[in-house]
Amino acid sequence: MIEKELAGKILREALKTGADLAEIYVEDVTSTQLGFDDSKLEQAVHGADRGAGIRVFFGNLVTYAYTDSLSENSLLDAAHAAASAGASSAKTQLIDLTERKSPLVYPVEKELDSMRIEDKAAILHRIDETARAYSPLIVQVFGSYGERVRRVWIYNSTGLMAHDERTFVEIRMGVVAKKNGTMQRSFRGFGGQKGLELLDDNDPTAVITEVAESAIKMLDAIPCPAGEMTVVMPNGWGGVLFHEACGHQMEADFITKGTSAYAGKVGEVVASPIITAIDDGTIPGRRGSLRFDDDGTPAQRTVLIERGVLKEYMWDLVEARRVGREASTGNGRRESYRHMPMPRMTNTFIDNGEHDPQEIIESTKRGIYIKQMAGGQAELAKGDFVFNATEAYLIEEGKLTAPVRGATVFGNGPAVLKEIDMLGNDLALDPGMGICGKGQSARVSVGQPTLRIPKVQVGGTDEPVEGVMG
Amino acid sequence: MTDYLELAKATVNKAAQNGVEVEVIITQDKETQVRVSGGEVEQLSQSGSGGMGVRVIQDGRTGYAYTSDLSDDSIEQTWRTATELAQVATPDAYRGLPDPQPIPDEDLEIWDASMQDVPTDRKIELLRQIEQATLDYDERVVATQWCTYQDATSHVYLANSRGFGGQYGRTTAAAYLMAVARDADGHAATAFGVGASNFFDDLNAEDIGHEAASKSISILGGKPVETHVGTVVLDHFVGAQIIAAISGALTAESWQKKRSFLLDRMGQTVGSDMVTLLDNGRMKRGLASAPFDGEGVPTSATRLVDEGVLQNLIYDSYSARKDNRASTGNAQRNGHRGMPSLGPSNFYIQPGNMTRDEIIAGVEKGFLVLSGMQTGGIDPVTGDCSMSAAGLWIENGEITGPVDGVTIATTLNDFLMNITAVGNDLRMMPLFGIIGVPTLRVDHVTIGGS
Ligand SMILES: [Zn+2]
Questions:
Q1: Is B46–A81 a contact, with Cβ atoms under 8 angstroms apart?
Q2: How many domains does chain B have?
Q3: What is the pLDDT of residue B375?
Q4: Fold category of A112-152+162-221 in CATH
Q5: What pLDDT was estimated at residue A461?
Q6: Which of A166, A192, B41, B244 is 20 to 30 A (C-alpha) from B223?
């Protein structure tokens, strides 16, 4: 961090050419990453990144300059560079900086240095041994351990002074299984915004056993039928569908430009009445949680859709100012001090419904149940989405039958949201590995209960199926 | 002015005591980014940044640490941390630094000396022209998103304890935007336009704007076709996603770790005779070109598949030592923050001599795929290949109308075997590496629709 007095001096410099708002963002990130592959601990990497970005607002023009050094001279140079777009004399007065406190508590019960690095490495050795012992069909195993502490300080000319500290731990793992020339991959992991207590709540050897089991099951999978089908999506990570196909379209930068299918639709029915969707940046332990966002705005819980009706978008400071909103929704996030913030999701999920998840499968005559899936991708404006199922089963007469491989599910987010006809009562957030890419990467969570889409396009290499409705 | 190569060498010397092998990379970049919307500048960012990464290898064990802070204290802490971290790694006799080799003295044309002198106003003007060209193309283009220009002048300084010391500079300039099209019937479509080069003057506003605009309006109102097995013609954006996955199956690492759908098929026919795949780290004006790779080995050109026959893989020094052969100079690096890792440089399918129009004219019934999305559906390990697709329907060699809401699926094996025409319009796409593809015709693809 930098002293209040120095921050004031830098901000005054940045305001000199007629800006209406100036901001300093200071960041200090340390991280350790261990990578295990091919029965060897191959990667042991430590990183230290520290720097600051100066952002200056002239109406809708935002200028930015950053520096790797926190020395007074470097900061003044950056302030000078960012202010150089202005042409008049100072018109905004710096208000005295006052530190704001957040009531939000994100506990780190076991500090990252409470465990030796050798013991962290030993977790990865154990994952490898467990998977290989599970079956000779497992031909390759990999795992990684990552920890990261990100400290940010934000000072701006409205007198704001805010600090956030975000601690993350995560473990990822995967296997390759092979039988008669057929290969199958499976991945999983867990993580969160917490300390090493994460390891008390999750057993890596139990997770890798599930991963190995899943890959081996999928070796015998039949090619996925192609065509329109009923699809049952899993709780937890299945929420990536809403994140990609609808969530991004509710980010304010796509709203103010008119790119989004949801622009100008607040108050309208945009989803089935059983759907309530929420972005909540205040959930302890979750990857997307913040005390203050990277604009210095307090994190909050925002109801996006309530019983099918669009209520609110996700705003950052720039987009809120553009439309004259009093405040953002605390969704301004940035990848690092080398980036400017933009509206991003935090922890985004579809809220609970009423159905027993088992009942959803039982009432489906024919379709596909997705158990595990890779991330998703979606197109703006229309909201078409695609994701790839890594573990999926046919549903026949209300029962899970053959595993299917190569299933790509493709549909239109806004349309699917209106069509979802069964929503489970088993809301869960994902296991904590989500990374959202929107030009900049950001840690996020997604979630949902088990849900059913009556009709959606499934791509596969097998012949089309008939009679898809459940 | 700091002499960064000297600083890298001095750090190597300090850290290399006690018989460890050491490699130090320093990067220094200057970057400009501009974003325009509705003719107005929205964002302007201009800065310099850099840092140091230290790789230490002791008894076959590797540790790595990096820092953005080049003060003496921070540098010492960084190499000490790397040395400590090496203790955690598993010993591996094949781990080691490469011996220094002479770097060919050749102008790769990756440095635009005038880039730094291009005034910011000129960059802004170019971007405004791109946006204008997009919006003026057709009244159905209603908005643009992410209309962005960015450039970088980057310097890399690399030294190691085997005596290597080298540096180079590379410039890149890129501009891109997304066009949003809507028609009177309420249909919407989006498409990207992209231009990227080592030289500022190569960026052409009309090309970038028209690509985004023409693609977005051409697929407006597209409908699914019936599910069937048929012929597809793939645009650069689509072909590049598939070729990128195939490049991942042609690294020595993917073979050594048994993660390639092409495993153990060296010398065999893996594609049609139209398929020649190359990796060339010395391509003139190649966005991934460099005189030496991420560990100081001279880059080279490697023919991986020759007229359908698998002939070679790409190597870094580790995988090469394991296979008892020479590195192809394919150790890639993500600036100073990443350890070297094996990957393609400028990887491409050799162009043929047909124009896209000639390829389309030869298709009786087929699907010209202009955009596609996939997330893990194209897998270099399993060889699965499926994605969502939008584009234009072809009937008797003529475009008849837009298609949307379908999936295309094949396997990577079948994809390579069923390439029946290769265009002359090679384009190098900046996409998880630099991937070059011309227009491709592929037969026997499952098109999943209604
Ligand atoms: Zn996302």
A1: yes
A2: 2
A3: 72
A4: PmbA/TldD fold (3.30.2290)
A5: 61
A6: B244
Q: Are residues B135 and B242 in the same domain?
A: no
Residues A55 and A47 sit within 8 Å (Cβ to Cβ)? no
Phi then psi dihedrals of residue A326, to 5 deg: -60, -45
Give B405's contacts in chain A (Cβ within 8 Å).
384, 410, 412, 457
Residues A381, B182: C-beta atoms closer than 8 Å: yes
Which residue of A lies nearest to B61 if distances are taken between CA atoms? A42
Is B283 found in the same domain as B168? no
- CA distance, residue A102 to nearest chain B CA (Å): 29
Q: Which residue has the tokens 């009679």?
A: A467
Indicate where chain A has its CATH 3.30.2290.10 domain(s). Answer: 112-152+162-221
- Give A310's pLDDT tier (boundaries 50, 70, 90): very high
Minimum CA–CA partner of B385 in chain A: A406
A341 CA → ligand 1 middle, Å: 15
Q: List the single best residue of A74, A180, A229, A457 to mutate versus B (max B Cβ within 10 A).
A: A457
Cα B196 to Cα A281: distance, rounded to the nearest angstrom = 37
CA-to-CA distance for B76 and B80, rounded, in angstroms?
6
ipTM: 0.93
Helix, strand, coil in percent for chain B, rounding step 5:
25, 40, 35
Angle between helices A204-219 and A117-134 (to 10 degrees): 30
d(CA B369, CA B156): 39
Contact B375 A139 (CB under 8 A): no
Residues of B in contact with A113 (CB under 8 A): none
**Ligand 1 centre distance from Cα of residue A243 (Å):** 6
A446 CA to centre of ligand 1 in angstroms: 10
Q: What distance in angstroms lies between residue A370's CA and the mean position of ligand 1's atoms?
A: 20
Average pLDDT value for residue range B367-386 = 88
For residues B181 and B266, membership in a common domain is answered with no
Quote the pLDDT of residue B50. Answer: 94
Domain that residue B264 falls in: 222-450
- Return d(Cα A288, Cα A282) in angstroms, integer: 8
For B87, list phi and psi in degrees, rounded to 5. Answer: -65, -25
pTM value > 0.90 = yes
Of B191, B215, B239, which residue is a domain's last? B215
Cross-strand pairs, A403 = A393
Task: Please determine, for residue B235, whether its predicted confidence score (pLDDT) is greater than 90.
Answer: yes
At residue A248 the predicted structure's pLDDT band, cuts being 50, 70 and 90, is: very high
Considering only the beta carbons, identify the residue of B50, B406, B409 that sits closest to A406: B409
CB distance A234 to A470 below 8 Å? no
Same domain, B250 and B118: no
The pLDDT tens digits for A209-228 are 999 999 999 999 998 887 88
Q: List, for residues B237-260, the tens digit of each pLDDT value.
A: 999 999 999 999 999 999 999 999
Q: Are residues B288 and B404 in the same domain?
A: yes
pLDDT at B432: 64
Min Cα separation A104/chain B (Å)? 31
Which of A84-93, A197-206, A307-316, B64-73 is least confident?
A84-93
Q: Are A310 and A265 in contact (CB under 8 A)?
A: yes
Same domain, B146 and B267: no
Interchain contact, A380 vs B374, CB within 8 Å: no
Reply yes or no on whether the pLDDT at A300 is more than 60.
yes
Matching residue, tokens 């959803």 = A360
Give the number of A-B residue pairs with CB atoms closer than 8 Å: 242
Domain end position, chosen among B215, B237, B262:
B215
Q: Within this chain, do residues B80 and B196 fall inside the same structural domain, yes or no?
A: yes
Q: B271 alpha carbon to ligand 1 midpoint, in Å?
A: 36
Interface of A with B in 120-179 (CB under 8 A): 121, 139-140, 176, 178
CATH of the domain at B36: 3.30.2290.10
